[in-house]
Structures are given as structure tokens and as C-alpha cells.
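Onboarding guide, step 5: your first structure request.
Type a short instruction followed by the sequence, for example:

Predict the 3D structure of this protein.
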Amino acid sequence: MNPIPELVPYLKQLRLSGILDSLEARNRQALDGKLAYTEFLALLIEDEVARREQKKFALRLRRAAFRASKTIEQFDFERLPLEEMRARAAAWYAELSRRRTTRDFSTEPVPRDLIELAIRCAGTAPSGAHRQPWTYVAVGDPELKRRIRAAAEDEERRTYTERMPDEWRRALAPLGTDWVKSHITDAPWVVVVVPDFGQMFQPDPLIEAIPWVSAFLLAAGGVYWIQRIVKDIEDN
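The system replies with C-alpha cells like these:
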């Protein structure tokens, strides 16, 4: 008796219908190899996890809106003349060296499409196995920015008053910084990079290429980026 037709409605109800793609082949493998039920189940689960990872990757490709897909053979790896390489490198350095880190932002509105382009640039940052384990959240709503600022200031206040070592306190003294984050509500947009810990090979997002993301984002447009807010923002 073939059990597969009877399983179809149950797998669909559980949203596991993808298992049907490999169920028959895995069933034969289990019978031929005299696998235990748990081994058979493990194979099916591995297949399902692989399918879901592939779907996530395909979704990221669609969201990236690449103009075309290329294989490695289709890329142009022609070496540029040495003087052109020097000229391009110097021009790029000159452009990046003009950027300054500041806590003063204009309140003038910035078109959303410019923010989206900056985020697309950041999305080209490298990551382990190209898993891209982060989500960008562009916040323009004034009330939500206010709540983000309140959460950030709460953490920073405790850092300045309780957690900061004396050496770091002395280093910051000439800059005159404190826990007040008025720039978060001044800036027309706040771009938050949210790490996806489930997709990371390393437990710390700082290890899993998040600095690359911030560098690409800043290079693209200099928009403000909050690396991490430890305190959760309550829904209410």
C-alpha cells in the first residue's frame, strides 16, 4: 500500500507539503537501507530545512531586484590598466574621506527612494556563506523614532553612569558626548539593522559581518545607523 496519497492532506494542513517532493525517494532509501524510523524522519526534516533555506534565498534574490542573474563564467574579470586602478582607488578614497561622523542632523525631509538605495548598497556587504543574516528597518515615523530614542537613552544613561570604565570615560571627555540622543529624533530617517541570530554561524552579530553592513550603509549615504539597542521597546 502506498501511504503517500493519504499523507497529502495532512502535510498540506501542517504546511509541510514540500516533503512530498522527496518522500517517495526517501521511503525507498529507508527500505533499502533498513533505516530506523528516526533516521527516516531525520532525512525528511533535513530535506524540509534545505527547501526552506532555498525559498528564503530565492526571496532575498527577488527583493534585491537584481537586473539579471549571472554565473561566474559571465563576469568580466578583465584587469584594468594600473594607472586607471590608481585613479579609481584615489577617487573612491577622496569620496569616502569627505564623510564625517556626527550627531548633528538636518531635519529636512529625505526622499524614501534615496534611503532604499542606500540600504541596497548596504545589502551588498559580504556575509558568511552569503546568508545575509540581517533585516533593515527604515523608520521615518516621528513617534516611533521618539520611542527608539527613549530606549537608546535609557541604555546609554546606564552605560555612562554605571558601566563605562574610567579609561573610556577619559577618552570621551574631549568630545563632550553624553547619553542624550536628540539626533535620533532630528534625523528624518533612522535605519536599524536587526540581526537574524537563526541565520548566523557566530552567536555575536558583531562577528557575523554587521560592521561591513554599517560601513557600506554609511558609504552609500551617511544615514544614521543604530547598531544595537539592548533594551526592547515595549508595544505600549
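Each response can be followed by summary notes, for example: The first helix runs from residue 4 to 13.
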